[in-house]
Specification:
single chain; about 270 residues; mainly alpha; Helix Hairpins; 14 helices; globular
C-alpha cells in the first residue's frame, strides 16, 4: 500500500509532467521550481483543507503549484489524514508565535514531539512546512472556525490534545499559550468541560484527576464510575482510526490518561 507521501509524490509527478509538456514562459518555470519543493507535502490526502482560510494560507505559502491544484471543491469530504496534519501544523505555528517570538528551543521541542508521534521521515517533511507557515500571519479565528465546521468531534479532541502536548514540550506553559489554546478550543467547538479535561492532563493541579473525568471532588462513587465509562468511550483510540496509525498511537496516550485518572481517584477514595 502506498504511503500518504508516496501518493503526494505521484500526484505531483503527474501534474508536473502534464504542465511541462505545454509551452510556458520563464516566469512560470521559476514559480514552479520555487514552489515544487514544498507543494509535494501539501497536495495529496487533503479534503476540506484545500479550501477556505487554510487553503488560502497554504496557497500563499507554497506558491503556484498548490494554487493550480486548488481548482475544485474539496470541502464536502470527511476529514482525511492530510486535513488533520495540516490543521495541526498551522495551529502549532500559531501557538509557537503566541508569546511574540519563536525560539530555536521551541522548534527543537516540536521536532522531538513530531519524531515521537510521526516518525523520522514525516517529521522532516512536516518541519519544512512548519518553517514556511511560521513566516505567515495566521488568522487563528478563521482557521479554527474552518476546522470547527468540517472536522469530526473526536478528531478535534485529538487535535487539541496534540496542541497541549506541543505547548508543554518545554515543561512550561506561558499565559499567552494557555489563552490561545482556550480560544482555539472555543472556535473549533469543543465543550468547556472537555477543554478543562484535556488541560488537566498536562497542567497538574490537586483536582486534576477529577477534571480529566469531567467531574468534581464531590462526585459520588457511582458518578465516578459512570464518568469513567463515558470518558473511556469518548477517548477510545478507535474514534480516530481514520486519521492513520500515528494519530491512533497518540490517542492511546490520551486514553491512558483517562485510565490513570480513574485509578488515582479509586486509590484516594478506596473504591474497589
Amino acid at each position: 500500500m502506498f504511503s500518504f507521501f508516496s501518493i503526494v509524490l505521484i500526484l505531483i509527478a503527474l501534474y508536473v509532467a502534464i504542465k511541462w509538456s505545454k509551452p510556458k514562459n520563464t516566469v512560470d518555470n521559476n514559480n514552479s521550481r520555487k514552489s515544487g519543493g514544498y507543494s509535494k507535502w501539501v497536495g495529496g490526502g487533503l479534503g476540506w483543507a484545500f479550501g477556505g482560510p487554510i487553503g488560502a494560507l497554504l496557497g500563499f505559502t507554497f506558491g503556484k503549484i498548490f494554487e493550480d491544484m486548488n481548482n475544485g471543491s474539496f470541502e464536502q469530504h470527511p476529514t482525511r489524514q492530510g486535513d488533520f496534519n495540516v490543521s495541526l501544523l498551522v495551529l502549532t505555528a500559531a501557538v509557537m508565535k503566541a508569546d511574540g517570538s519563536v525560539r530555536k528551543s521551541e522548534l527543537d521541542y516540536v521536532k522531538t514531539f513530531l519524531l515521537r508521534n510521526f516518525g523520522e521521515k514525516a517529521t522532516e517533511e512536516y518541519l519544512i512546512m512548519l518553517r514556511e507557515i511560521l513566516k505567515q500571519d495566521i488568522n487563528v479565528r478563521e482557521v479554527s472556525m474552518q476546522i470547527g465546521r468540517f472536522m469530526e468531534y473526536p478528531s478535534k479532541l485529538q487535535l487539541l490534545h496534540y496542541l497541549f502536548g506541543i505547548s508543554s514540550a518545554d515543561g512550561h506553559f506561558s499565559q499567552a499559550e494557555t489563552d490561545l489554546l482556550a480560544s482555539i478550543s472555543g472556535f473549533i467547538g469543543i465543550h468547556p468541560g472537555e477543554f478543562s479535561s484535556i488541560k488537566a492532563m498536562f497542567i497538574k493541579e490537586t483536582d486534576s484527576a477529577y477534571k480529566i473525568l469531567e467531574i468534581t471532588p464531590e462526585a459520588t462513587e457511582e458518578e465516578i464510575k459512570k464518568a469513567y465509562r463515558e470518558m473511556a468511550m469518548k477517548y477510545h483510540p478507535d474514534k480516530v482510526n481514520h486519521l492513520g496509525e500515528d494519530v491512533g498511537k497518540a490517542a492511546e496516550e490520551k486514553f491512558k490518561k483517562v485510565v490513570e485518572a480513574y485509578e488515582t481517584i479509586k486509590k484516594q477514595r478506596g473504591i474497589k
